[in-house]
Automatic annotation (TrEMBL):
<feature type="transmembrane region" description="Helical">
    <location>
        <begin position="78"/>
        <end position="107"/>
    </location>
</feature>
<feature type="transmembrane region" description="Helical">
    <location>
        <begin position="119"/>
        <end position="137"/>
    </location>
</feature>
<keyword id="KW-0812">Transmembrane</keyword>
<dbReference type="Pfam" id="PF07331">
    <property type="entry name" value="TctB"/>
</dbReference>
<dbReference type="InterPro" id="IPR009936">
    <property type="entry name" value="DUF1468"/>
</dbReference>
<protein>
    <submittedName>
        <fullName>Tripartite tricarboxylate transporter TctB family protein</fullName>
    </submittedName>
</protein>
<keyword id="KW-0472">Membrane</keyword>
<feature type="transmembrane region" description="Helical">
    <location>
        <begin position="39"/>
        <end position="58"/>
    </location>
</feature>
<feature type="domain" description="DUF1468">
    <location>
        <begin position="10"/>
        <end position="146"/>
    </location>
</feature>
<keyword id="KW-1133">Transmembrane helix</keyword>
<feature type="transmembrane region" description="Helical">
    <location>
        <begin position="9"/>
        <end position="27"/>
    </location>
</feature>
Length: 152
């Protein structure tokens, strides 16, 4: 039944998605809001369940090609660690700086770390994306995001 690594990971993720969905049913519901607090976590749990079921049926490559694809160059390992560090910094700064400023810094820093050198376009995207997401969630969906040091 669990012959390949994909199948083992898929079963683990499927069981985790069931646990995650059970936990989302325990989230409190709020009156007078168009989108309740459990909608997005529930959607993510269902998506994880579907993707883990799809992963179960994915065929693995042969051993020779698998070993060839599994080698990660040292430079890319450092990039992965850098991205992990930026993600942790983003989580740490989300509450004190707020969603807009921390997301702006995250997008700009992560793009720069990954080698994107068009600073103007990177800056524009880093400013516009968090603003659009922030106002879509806070005004459109009435979901509160951390405002941080900004007055809105």
């Amino acid at each position: 039944m669990l012959k390949t690594a994909n199948q083992k990971i898929a079963v683990f993720l499927f069981l985790f998605s069931i646990f995650y969905l059970i936990m989302t049913f325990n989230l409190p519901s709020y009156p007078y809001v168009p989108v309740d607090s459990d909608v997005i976590p529930m959607g993510l749990g269902i998506l994880l369940m579907i993707l883990s079921a799809a992963l179960y049926f994915v065929k693995e490559k042969s051993e020779a090609s698998k070993e060839e694809h599994e080698k990660i160059p040292g430079k890319e390992k450092l990039m992965l660690l850098g991205v992990l560090g930026i993600i942790l910094l983003y989580i740490f700064l989300l509450e004190p700086l707020g969603f807009i400023l921390s997301t702006l810094l995250f997008i700009f820093g992560c793009s720069r770390l990954l080698g994107y050198k068009n600073y103007i376009l990177n800056g524009v995207v880093s400013i516009i994306f968090p603003l659009v997401v922030y106002f879509a969630f806070t005004k459109g969906l009435q979901v509160a995001l951390p405002s941080g040091i900004l007055p809105f």
